Amino acid sequence: MRSLRCVLMTVLLAMCGFASGPALAESLNGSSQHLMMTLVAESDHPKAGAPLTIALATTPEKGWHGYWRNPGDAGFPATFDWTLPAGAKAGDAEWPVPTTLLIAGLMNYVYEAPYAPLVTIQVPAGLAAGTKFPIRLKTSYLVCSATICVPEEKALSLDLTIGDGAPSQAAAFAGWRQAIPKPLDAGATYAAGNGTMRIAVPFPAGAKADKAYFFPVTTGMIENGAAQSVTRDGDRLTITTKVAANAKTGGPIEGVLRIGNGQGLGVKAVPGAVADTGEPAASGESVWLTALIAFAGAVLGGLILNIMPCVFPILSLKALSLARGGASEKDARGEALAYTAGVVLVCLGLGAAILALRAGGSAVGWAFQLQHPAAIVALLLLSAAIAFNLAGLFEVPTPRFAGESGASGAFATGALAAFIATPCTGPFMGAALGAALVLPWPAALAVFGGLGIGLSLPFLAIGFIPSWRRWLPKPGVWMETFRHILSVPMFLTAIALGWVLGRQTGADTLTLALIAVLAVGVVLWIGGSRQRKGKAFGIVTQILLLAVFVGSAVVIARAPPVSAKVATAGDESFTEARLASLRAEKRPVFVYFTADWCLTCKVNEKAAIDTAGVRDAFAKHKVAALIGDWTDGDPVMGRFIQAHNRAGVPLYLYYAPGAAEPTVLPQVLTPGLLEGLGA
User: Which of 408-422, 519-533, 642-656 has the highest mean pLDDT?
Assistant: First the structure.
């Protein structure tokens, strides 16, 4: 009965619109002001082969409203008819969180304030820079006031030019993305009985939910106009409302859970047990248990980072400085604590930056700064300077503190070790940092702090356990030779960073960076020559060094990115559309997300993914391989990674034919594991 009433109401409202001939005529020729619409591209110069996000910036006239993807009890959703260049494809619209509007007992899901659905368009690869890229959209929709509804059509256009993909509307898109519901990776359940629907959604006890409301995407399951009650039970939030008449339960229910003003979570609930809510849980033990497990994983992951080539030389030199200096128990412990403080504070700073950027709508993850060439060249020059120091070219200024005693030197060394360890991700780190992104911010920062504690544990142990220091070799001439040997992994680190920079920005920019490395070497040689004559390093020399660092970063930051990279032989570039297409064909799919600056990624690719045995097994079992290159920090890919509770790369997913969800594979792969996929 209610469904018939809804249909009749919609028809009557539409007839009212058609009865007002001038209003309809205005809407059809695009002059209506009830909904002001503009197509906005995130980049005016989209990159060939990369996704481009388009916003349909919409402003309702005062007293009027547009409709969400599910309009509710009345109205109809907007339709989009795209005309795009050959090879381009538009995805489904992503809708911001709507508001409710109850009229005569009918619930409408609407927008009364400015809003912007987002659509991702896949730009074809191979288009030359300067190629025109016209976008045309014909959209039909319903716009209503409190007394009348008017069907409208609009023809919108946008003319772009293929270029470097640099964002031109970053601030606007950050705000629009903030209003798009974030996918909830954890599974929700629902139970229907006796006319009542209860939907249980995993939600951390410490997280804030303001004016919570469930907007159904799946129609015909709940009574739209019925009141909703929301209760919290530990780390679960339960919505209770009425089941729709003649609802066919048993399948999944999709919807959006509003958790704040313009903020929401995308929810997919399946039938399952939902305990009675009304008895609040004693505490939020589950969320803190999750935080404790993530903290332990971060500590282990940080501990493993100490064997990385960029960290090991600094740790070794710092440990030997205790043996050479013969520090007292008090001094050894003080240095250990200072070193730990430097490591932990840098990790907390990076974690806070990640959480803040994500709160602003950015899809960044661990080592996010390496998505910017300026940060890479700064690390490259710093690694080269450390290597020159270890090789004996100079002694002061930076980074002589790596081998000096004292709390200040230990603190600076710890901060340096943490900073240059960011390109690395190891076992336990991915899951731990991914969990941090869904925890309350105090628990999330504790996880990042755990990473710092793990990174500093070896030196902390040396400082606090005297017997460990006695195992260290006695001071001697050999220490200078060992120091020179330690320069080799630092030079290798610099070479790796140069390779990453070249992959991101091309050979011309890499050449500029190598010139900057040469300039740094010359300046340090001049300073070292002064030192060998008994003079100070020199203020002028330090100013020149600073000028090379800053000038190189500024110049390289302005360098245009290279054209789209080619996927590994036999693999396809990852897009969500291609993944959906392969899954629709019932093919097994292996998806791996990587970045040029991710050491673990490159080791896995060389040792497991790109081996002959794995490739033969993939061909035999018809396993499709998709590669997601996140070197440049693509935001669409970043949100996909985030949806799988990962803070960065590597991420390895296996989609078995017919499976609802992928299997998340370990961060350290073996050929045997991959050869068994699809079997």
Answer: 519-533
Count of other CB atoms within 10 angstroms of residue 626:
20
Cβ(335)–Cβ(460) below 8 Å: no
Handedness of CA 413, 418, 424, 427 (dihedral sign): positive
Return the percent helix, strand and coil in the chain, to nearest 5: 45, 20, 35
82 vs 529 pLDDT, higher one: 82
* Element (DSSP H or E) covering residue 446: helix 441-464
For residue 170, CA distances in Å to 7, 364, 368, 570 come to 41, 14, 17, 35
Report how far residue 78's alpha carbon sits from residue 68's, in angstroms, rounded to the nearest whole number.
8
Q: Say how many residues make up the chain.
A: 679
CB-based contact 417:409 (threshold 8 Å):
no
Please state, in angstroms and rounded to a whole number, the distance separating the CA atoms of residues 595 and 573: 13
Structure tokens at 250: 């048993």
Cα separation, 73 vs 341, in Å, equals: 58
Strands 106-111 and 66-72: what pairing?
antiparallel
Distance CA 95, CA 68 (A): 7
Kindly report the number of other CB atoms within 10 A of residue 639's CB atom. 18
| Residue type at position 521 | G
CA end-to-end distance (rounded Å), the chain: 51
CB-based contacts of 193, cutoff 8 Å, min separation 6: none
Nearest to 628 by CA among 45, 41, 51: 51
pLDDT tens by residue, 363-405: 455 555 566 787 778 878 888 888 887 788 877 443 444 444 5
CA atoms of 266 and 270, how far apart (whole Å):
14
Q: 506: which residues sit within 8 A by CB, 6+ positions away?
A: 559, 560, 561, 562
Confidence label for 322 from pLDDT (cuts 50, 70 and 90) = low
User: Residue 227's closest CA among 209, 241, 207?
Assistant: 241
Q: What tokens appear for 418 in the block?
A: 């943490």
> CA–CA separation, 260 vs 136, rounded Å?
34
**Which of the two residues, 280 and 111, has the higher pLDDT score?**
111
3-class SS letters over 249-265 = CCCCEEEEEEEECCEEE
3-class secondary structure for 269-314?
EEECCCCCCCCCCCCCHHHHHHHHHHHHHHHHHHHHHCCCCCCHHH
Closest CA to 607 of 668, 663, 679, 676: 668
Q: Half-sphere exposure of 274 toward its Cβ, with a 13 Å CA cutoff?
A: 26
pTM for this entry: 0.44
Amino acid residing at 154:
K
Write out the two tokens for 78: 């907007």
DSSP state of 662: P
Q: Using the CB atoms, write b or e for 96-130: b if 16+ within 10 Å.
A: bbbbbbebeebbbbbbeeebbbbbbbbbbeebeee
Residue 496 token pair: 């790796």
Helix (H, G, I), strand (E, B) or coil at 140: strand
| Cα–Cα dist 552/385, whole Å | 14
Contact partners, residue 371, CB within 8 Å, separation at least 6? 364, 595, 630, 631, 632, 633
Would you give the DSSP letter of residue 338? Answer: H
Tokens 């109850």, residue located: 102
Q: Alpha helix locations (H) across 327-422?
A: 329-359, 373-390, 407-420
Residue 115 DSSP label: B
Cα 47 to chain centroid, rounded? 20
Q: Which domains does the chain have, with CATH numbers?
A: 2-171 (2.60.40.1250), 183-271 (2.60.40), 287-557 (no CATH), 572-675 (3.40.30.10)
Backbone φ and ψ for 318, nearest 5 degrees, come out as -70, -40
Contact (Cβ atoms closer than 8 angstroms) between residue 424 and residue 308: yes
